[in-house]
Amino acid sequence: AERGEECAVAAVVARVSHTDAGVRIAAIRALMLVAQRGDETALAAVSGRLCQTEDGDAGVRAAAVAALAQLAERGDERAIRAVSERLDDAASFVRSVVETALA
Q1: How many other C-beta atoms can be found within 10 angstroms of the C-beta atom of residue 91?
Q2: Which backbone phi and psi does 81 adopt, to 5 degrees?
């Protein structure tokens, strides 16, 4: 699929909420490849996943932070807020990804 192809983005977004953490991580990483910067559908799916604190998988949280950093337009307040909420994440590697994303 080409970057920005609406059908590809929609298909991947559908997997961001999958019950398996590995599928969620793969979907979030795939969005980084198929969605264009500023794609509202992709941003909403990833920021929504990041804000769901019941997602106990640190890998999902780290992937979501990295994806928001890549997909959000510079200065996107929603993305900055969602990423900043993970500054005190229980997992040190998630905090490290957050610090890199906010730099």
Answers
A1: 14
A2: -65, -45
Asked whether residue 69 is domain-assigned, the answer is yes
pTM: 0.91
Report pLDDT digits (tens) over 30-59: 999 999 999 999 999 999 888 766 668 999
Contact between 53 and 62 under an 8 Å Cβ cutoff? The reply is: no
3-state secondary structure 53-68: CCCCCHHHHHHHHHHH
Q: Contact, 83 vs 101, CB < 8 A?
A: yes
Q: Which of 2-11, 52-61, 68-77 has the lowest mean pLDDT?
A: 52-61
Half-sphere exposure of residue 98: CA atoms within 13 angstroms, side-chain side: 22
Domain count, the chain: 1
Instruction: For residue 101, give Cα distances in angstroms to 5, 23, 72.
Output: 25, 23, 11
Whether 20 is in a domain gets the answer: yes
